[in-house]
Amino acid sequence: MLQVQASEPAAAPSPEDVRVLGWARMTLLDYPGKVASTLFLSGCNYRCPYCHNPELIPASPQARGEDIRNEEIYRYLSRYTGMLEGVCITGGEPLLQEGLSSLCRRVKELGLQVKLDTNGSMPGRLRELLDGEFLDFVAVDIKGPPGRIQAITRAAVREERIVADTEATVACLKASGIPFELRTTVVPGLLEPHDLVAIGQWMRGSPRYVLQQFRPGKTLDPLFEDLRPHPPDRLHEVCRTLSQAGYFGECSVRGIG
Questions:
Q1: How large is the average pLDDT for residues 168-197?
Q2: For residues 251 and 257, what is the distance between their CA atoms, to the nearest angstrom?
Q3: CATH for 39
């Protein structure tokens, strides 16, 4: 969940700065197995109606917040390198930010690992970060199966382009050798069990796939605020089906209390 934190008065940004609108200074939730600091970067090229970070989408009515100074973040990370193990960079879509490679480089120079969350739409930018050895873990949001993604994301590009970019993203990660996971937020009315099986067939051979429980409450589209999530048993059943089919090295369910 996005946490907006007060920042020092803004100074003129450097060309290498990124726009950070939210910051969870220390968390055990966002980077599997690590104590991390999570940065929420502004901007996204998708408009998923169930998005629970609408503050990060400039065109949304909920958009708010002031930029958190990059130097303030670096000072904090430097101070707590003995407690922190990594930094999770999420959004929005972080790969939209031109200064992302500079952010990753500075985090790595502090001896911290970098996890990137992405929607899989910018494989070229991802490849640049992988080539620079700036990333240690990547999570890719698979929004739906081919034929359904454009409608789910309400993106301004064609379905064929989204599918091709997602496939290129996953292929790039497989070739890189770094750990990564695919994950899907299972939203009733948008995704049903047969859609998740279709994703399994499409993305087979990936090391880890996570089914994320949809959380009602604050969403980009108010129609989703009171939507009742799928019963946990249904997600576990789909997870067992995917595991038995051998589509992934590991399949799990996340976000069920």
A1: 97
A2: 18
A3: 3.20.20.70
